[in-house]
Design a protein that fits this description.
Blueprint lengths: L1 H12 L1 H8 L5 H25 L4 H18 L7 E2 L5 H12 L3 H24 L11 H23 L9 H13 L5 H20 L5 H16 L26 H6 L1 H25 L6 H17 L6 E2 L3 H7 L6 H16 L9 H15 L2 H10 L1 H17 L1 H21 L3 E5 L8 E2 L12 E6 L8 H13 L7 E5 L8 H16 L3 E5 L3 H9 L11 E2 L2 H12 L6 H9 L10 H4 L1
Parallel strand pairs: 5-6, 6-7, 7-8
Antiparallel strand pairs: 1-2, 3-4, 3-5
Length: about 600
C-alpha cells in the first residue's frame, strides 16, 4: 500500500511517469509525425525570437530544445508546447539591452539568469499553491498588453526587415531609431524584399489553413532566394553557421549588482508567462476533455525556465501558435515534444550549417507574423461595443507597454486589473426590489418600474462583499434610497445573498448604520444571509448579541414577518392567484420556493 501511494505521488508531481505507463503503441506513429512537423516550426521560430531579443539565434535553439524535455516529465497538459514566445521577447530585450553594445556574452548571461530567476519564482509559487494569481490579469488588460507588445515588436522588427536594427526599449524610442536609420540610408532593399516575401508567404498560408507549415515554407523560400540571388555578397545579414552540439549546463555568471536589477523583470516574465500558459492550458484541457492542475502547471513552467537558463537559453512560455500545430498534426502525448527536441539536437549536432544562408530578414518576418497574430481588432471592437470601461482598460494597458516599455507595462497591466476589481467592488450594483405581476420572486425596480412597493418596506440588495472599500458606499446608498421613497420607511430588509463577507471596517459601519436607523425608528433586517457571514456579524457584535430575530431564510419569509409584525395589509398578484386556486398564501407568496 505504501509503495502504491509513493507511485501515485510520483505520478502527481511527475505526470510524465503516468503518461509512460498509460502509453498505447498505436499513438507512436502520430506522435512521431507530429514531432517532425513541429521541428520545422520550432527551430526557426526559436532563433527568430532570440534575434528579436538581441541574442544570438543559436540561443533560441537551446531555448526551444530544453523546455520540451522538462515539460514532458513535469507538465500536466498532454500536448502543450513550451518555447520562446513573442509576448516575452520585448521583456527579455529590455533586460539585455544595457549589455548588447558592450558585452554580448554578458547579454546571454543576463537572459539566462532572467530565466533562472523567473523559473524559481514560478516553482515557489506553484509549491505554495499560488496558481490563482494568474487570474489577476483580466482579459481586457491582457488584450491591451498583448496589443502593446505586438506594436512594439512590429516597429522593432520592421527595422530588421529593412536591414538594420534598433534597440530602444519603448515604442517611442524604437520609432525614433527607425526614423534615424532610414534617414541615414541604412535601408537595404534586398533584405526588405526577401523579408517582405517571407512575411507575405506566412500570412497567406495561415489565412488558407493553420495546418500548413507556413514558417517552414518561409524559411526554405528565404534560403532559396538567398542562394539564387547571392544575398550574402550584397550585404544582407545572414544567420550563419550554428555552434555544433549543445552547451554544457552552467550557472549564468553575473555579479550581484546586475542580478539584483533583474528582479522586477523576472517577476514580470514569471507573471506574463504563467498567465499565458494558464489560459492556453485550460483552453486545451476543455477542448480535449482533460483536467489540469494550475499549480502543477506553474511548477512545470518554472522547472522548464530554470533548466533553460542553465543551458544558455532565455525565458520561455507556452505557445499559442505551436501547440495548435502539434494538435492538428495528430499529437497524443508529450512524446511529440520529445521527438521535436531530439530532431533539433540532431540539427545542432550533425547539420549546424543548415541555416547558414538564411537571411535575418526571414527571422524578422517570422516574428512579425507572430506579432500580427497577437492583434485582434474584432475583440477590441467587441469590448468597445459591449463595455466601454473594459475597452479603456485595454487601451490603457496597451499605452503603458508602448510608452513605458514592456517591463513597466507588465506591472501596470497587473495593477490595472487589480484597480478595476477594486473599482467594481467599491461601487457595486445595488437595487431596490419590488413585486411584479405575473412574475415570481422580487425584481429590480430599475428594470421593472411597473413593480409594486410594499408599504413602509424597503427591500435592498447589495451585489458584493462588504469590506473596508465599499461599506461607506453601502450606508450612503441605503440612506439615499430611504430618503427617496414615496412614503416613510418603517423597515429595511437587506437581501444579503450576494454579500459573501463582512470585515471589521464594514462591521463598524453596520453598527453605526443600525444606531442611526434605530434613532429614526427604522428597523434593519436581513434575508438570505449566509451562515458564515451571519456568524461573522455575530462575532463582531454588530447587534446587541446574536440576531436571529433580524434574519430570515428567504426574502419571502422576511416579507411575511414584516407584514405580521407591523400589521400591514397588502395583497399582491401571487396572493390573488393563490386565492383563486384555494391556497391560503400569506404575505406575497404561496411558498418559500415561489418567492425565491
Amino acid at each position: 500500500m505504501a509503495e502504491f501511494r509513493d507511485m501515485r505521488a510520483r505520478s502527481t508531481w511527475v505526470p510524465g511517469i503516468g503518461e509512460a505507463r498509460a502509453y498505447q503503441p498505436g499513438w507512436w506513429t502520430r506522435d512521431l509525425t507530429a514531432g517532425l512537423v513541429l521541428t520545422g516550426l520550432l527551430a526557426p521560430a526559436g532563433m527568430a525570437y532570440a534575434a528579436a531579443a538581441g541574442l544570438p539565434p543559436v540561443n533560441g535553439l537551446y531555448a526551444s530544445i530544453i523546455p520540451l524535455f522538462v515539460y514532458a516529465l513535469f507538465g500536466p497538459s498532454r500536448i502543450m508546447v513550451l518555447g520562446p514566445d513573442s509576448a516575452l521577447t520585448p521583456l527579455i530585450a529590455a533586460a539585455v539591452l544595457p549589455a548588447l553594445t558592450t558585452d554580448p556574452a554578458q547579454a546571454v548571461a543576463i537572459a539566462g539568469m532572467l530565466a533562472v530567476m523567473a523559473g524559481v519564482m514560478c516553482v515557489c509559487a506553484g509549491i505554495a499553491r499560488f496558481g490563482f494569481l494568474a487570474e489577476l490579469l483580466s482579459a481586457p488588460v491582457r488584450y491591451g498588453y498583448l496589443h502593446g507588445i505586438a506594436i512594439t515588436i512590429i516597429v522593432g522588427q520592421t527595422a530588421t526587415l529593412c536591414g538594420f536594427s534598433v534597440s530602444g526599449e519603448s515604442l517611442l524610442g524604437q520609432l525614433r531609431q527607425l526614423w534615424h536609420g532610414l534617414a541615414d540610408g541604412l535601408f537595404t532593399g534586398w533584405a526588405f524584399a526577401v523579408g517582405g516575401v517571407c512575411l507575405a508567404t506566412i500570412l497567406i498560408l495561415r489565412a488558407i489553413s493553420r495546418r500548413l507549415p507556413a514558417t517552414l515554407v518561409a524559411v526554405v523560400l528565404g534560403i532559396v532566394v538567398s542562394l539564387a540571388a547571392g544575398l550574402a555578397a550584397k550585404g544582407v545579414p545572414m544567420v550563419g553557421d550554428l555552434p555544433r552540439g549543445l552547451p554544457t549546463p552552467a550557472w549564468p555568471h553575473l555579479d550581484w549588482s546586475t542580478t539584483r536589477t533583474l528582479v522586477g523583470a523576472a517577476l514580470g516574465v514569471a507573471f506574463v508567462s504563467f498567465a499565458d500558459t494558464s489560459v492556453l492550458s485550460r483552453t486545451m484541457a476543455i477542448r480535449r476533455r482533460e483536467q489540469v492542475d494550475t499549480n502543477q502547471e506553474l511548477v512545470a513552467l518554472g522547472l522548464a525556465n530554470l533548466a533553460t537558463g542553465l543551458f544558455h537559453g532565455f525565458p520561455i512560455s507556452s505557445s499559442s501558435s505551436r501547440t495548435p500545430v502539434a494538435e492538428s498534426a495528430g499529437a497524443r502525448t508529450q512524446l511529440t515534444g520529445v521527438v521535436a527536441a531530439v530532431a533539433m539536437i540532431a540539427i545542432a549536432t550533425a547539420a549546424p550549417s543548415t541555416f547558414r544562408h538564411m537571411p535575418r530578414a526571414t527571422l524578422a518576418a517570422i516574428v512579425l507574423a507572430a506579432a500580427v497574430s497577437l492583434i485582434d481588432i474584432p475583440v477590441m471592437v467587441h469590448l468597445y461595443t459591449v463595455r466601454r470601461s473594459e475597452f479603456v482598460l485595454a487601451i490603457s494597458a496597451m499605452l503603458a507597454v508602448a510608452v513605458l516599455g514592456p517591463v513597466t507595462g507588465a506591472v501596470v497591466a497587473v495593477v490595472l486589473s487589480i484597480l478595476n476589481f477594486l473599482r467594481q467592488s467599491w461601487k457595486p450594483y445595488t437595487a431596490e426590489l419590488v413585486r411584479v405581476d405575473g412574475l415570481k420572486g422580487y425584481h429590480d425596480r430599475a428594470r421593472h418600474p411597473e413593480g409594486h412597493v410594499i408599504p413602509g418596506l424597503l427591500l435592498y440588495r447589495f451585489d458584493a462583499p462588504l469590506f473596508f472599500a465599499n461599506c461607506r458606499f453601502f450606508a450612503d446608498d441605503l440612506n439615499r434610497r430611504i430618503a427617496t421613497q414615496d412614503e416613510p420607511v418603517r423597515c429595511v430588509i437587506v437581501t444579503a445573498e450576494p454579500i459573501t463577507d463582512v470585515d471589521a471596517t464594514a462591521a463598524e459601519t453596520l453598527r453605526d448604520l443600525l444606531a442611526d436607523l434605530t434613532a429614526r425608528t427604522i428597523e434593519l433586517r436581513f434575508a438570505e444571509l449566509k451562515g458564515t457571514v451571519h456568524e461573522r456579524v455575530d462575532r463582531y457584535r454588530v447587534f446587541a448579541g446574536e440576531m436571529p430575530d433580524h434574519t430570515a431564510r428567504t426574502t419571502g419569509e422576511a416579507v411575511k414577518a414584516y407584514l405580521r409584525t407591523y400589521g400591514v395589509v397588502w395583497v399582491d398578484w401571487e396572493d390573488r392567484k393563490n386565492r383563486r386556486t384555494g391556497d391560503d398564501g400569506l404575505g406575497g407568496s404561496s411558498s418559500v420556493d415561489d418567492v425565491r
